[in-house]
Amino acid sequence: xxxxxxxxxxxxxxxxxxxxxxxxxxxxxxxxxxxxxxxxxxxxxxxxxxxxxxxxxxxxxxxxxxxxxxxxxxxxxxxxxxxxxxxxxxxxxxxxxxxxxxxxxxxxxxxxxxxxxxxxxxxxxxxxxxxxxxxxxxxxxxxxxxxxxxxxxxxxxxxxxxxxxxxxxxxxxxxxxxxxxxxxxxxxxxxxxxxxxxxxxxxxxxxxxxxxxxxxxxxxxxxxxxxxxxxxxxxxxxxxxxxxxxxxxxxxxxxxxxxxxxxxxxxxx
Length: 269
Ligand code: ADP
Fold this sequence. Notes:
By secondary structure, the protein is of the alpha/beta class. It has helices at about 30-55, 70-75, 95-100, 105-110, 130-135, 140-160, 175-185, 195-200, 205-215, 235-250, and strands at about 60-65, 85-90, 120, 160-170, 225-230. The longest helix has 25 residues, at about 30-55.
């Protein structure tokens, strides 16, 4: 597997240069990779336990993708098994009237995890330079300023102790077609099928351009984007699990020191 799928700050992202079919050279099938994913999940559980106890770090994980890209799958398969007490998932939908009455980062800032928590954003402030741009929901003059504002906002979070991991789940247009057809044809998946997704698919090119700009302009040393090859779900899960485990390891965490005399404490009857 590549060391990292992180975008180097300052490089211009062309998504056609990033292969969504990539599965590295370490594993050749889902079956082989499954063991490794299980190992990583166990590691993640252990690390999260120390993170919760130590009460020092905050970790924010941002997930962005085209429809069917696998955000829900990542939350289910990668985060599965970690203690729900230390984890918060926030899904960002079309903003409410109250949210629209504020600046676009208002609802985002409130959902940033506090100390000891892992926060997962299912969609995020990036929608404000993606769907908003593609559908002209704000004038160009307005959304153009947002890249800089987002970088400054993420710098503030980083400077005040939040570690940020951003994952773009990169699927191909053909793969999206297969997944939409599978939703259409599978009774248990039909509830996920939305005619709205078919409409959005027509804007594929505009979305790719918007993603390329967001990935280029908002890959910073303090909050890099990772472009995750996501046509193969097992590989996508592996890349993300590894990146999260490496990040948690880098926190170099310790359980807090126990109260003095704990070993000899007598528990009264
Ligand atoms: P998901 O596709 O994430 O599973 P939904 O089907 O409910 O969930 O879609 C959420 C919708 O909210 C998406 O179409 C997304 O583009 C939209 N959305 C999220 N944030 C914004 C925003 N800031 N402005 C406009 N639309 C947004």
